[in-house]
Amino acid sequence: MDRTGAFPEALEDAVTATVTRPVVVGVDDLEHSARAVTAGAREARLRGAPLWLAHAYHWLPPVVAGVTPGGDTPEGAVRDAATALLSRAVARTHAEFPDLEIHDYAMSGHPGPALADLAEDAALLVIGGRGRGGFAGMLLGSAALSTVAHARCPVLVVRGEREARPAEAGGRVLVGIDVLAPTTGTEVLGFAFEEAALHGYGLRAVHAWEDPGSFYPVAVGHHPRETLDEMDAERRRRLDSLIAPWRRKHPDTIVETQVVTGPPSKKLVESSRTADLLVIGGLHYTGSTGIRLGGLGHTLLHYAHCPVVVVPEG
């Protein structure tokens, strides 16, 4: 288990030497991070991947690169507390998942950038929806939003109150698709189908759209019923076309497609009530760092009733 201030060389070698990329979990404290750690451990076990538990501390200025302070300094005292926290998290996780390979990593820096840097080549970065600084009325913690904004790999935000169901109980992955921008859907669909296959879940692909005429006064708004039916049918054809190659690649996954009329954010939030995982995309531009979320992505991270995975695309 690595406790140094620099990126652990042994772990770096492990990433480059194996095809199985790690699952990284951001640990705030044991109370607020318990669900995230359990979710990350399950994902690692399904993938046959190592689990990295990481904690970033930033109460004091970052430690000088290459220097590991001792406990007799303020920085060392904070690091000792961080490593003690991770030791307890590792012990608790090993007790529940004894076959997992687990590493811990204490980092000096702000949680968002630090976790994103550590998880750059990870299969998945897992974080809790609200940290220890959050109030009951807060929807998503600032550290979680910062982590998503800096991440370069898929990020699982563990939110919602209901525990994920087993496959035999009808578990389901929900994925939102914009059929008018199909070039940005490949990464999202690929991840959603792979995740459904790993868990043995079914998959529901949803496209939600609004009648553009509904934004205007009644006198000039709303398309005729026949035109709306044609627009709806065209969207269904596009959605089925996008899903078709993934159906062939995952023939054992039960797939449902659905086109609904209404505000996409509202419809996807409603659909998340019966889902175990919601998969959405966020733009990642070449040469930039992190994921850019639009209004829809932010709404779902704040209001979805189940865990949400944000997949970088583009």
TrEMBL record:
Regarding protein family, the annotation reads: Belongs to the universal stress protein A family.
Q: Which SUPFAM superfamilies match?
A: Adenine nucleotide alpha hydrolases-like
Q: Where is the UspA domain?
A: 21-159, 172-312
Pfam families found in the cross-reference section: Usp
Q: What is this protein called?
A: Universal stress protein
Question: What InterPro entries does the record point to?
Answer: Rossmann-like_a/b/a_fold, Universal_stress_UspA, UspA
